[in-house]
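The records we work with from here on pair a chain with its fold. Here is one such record, which you should read through line by line:
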Amino acid sequence: MSKKNSHLRLNFKFWIETDEGVNILGEGKWKLLKAIRQTGSLKAAVEESGFAYRKTWEKLKTIEKRLGFRLIEKTRGGEKGGQTVLTAKGEMFVNFFDKLYSDVEPDIQQHFDKMIEELNKIID
């Protein structure tokens, strides 16, 4: 990339939505699901992500309703306290987004760099 526009960088997000444009699942909830997987706790994941617990819980329930299946399973109390884990389908969504970013991001960045080079030729 030319030094002229080296301060420019590309930023993008992916999300899944319905045919009607209703957002189902995006980067924020993907990161939240990853945090749930890592911590085993919705509360810890919410705190780590900076979301409000109640609003996040309601949003997850809405997402699950729209998808028609559960992404997480919560157990309460017990000897070690409650825990939250991803369902098999929740794991699939995390893996889907992981793969999407790892497979597509390098190509997008390469295309962006090429476009910046073209732009620099025009404005020189």
Q: What stands out?
A: Strands lie at 15-17, 23-26, 72-75, 83-86.
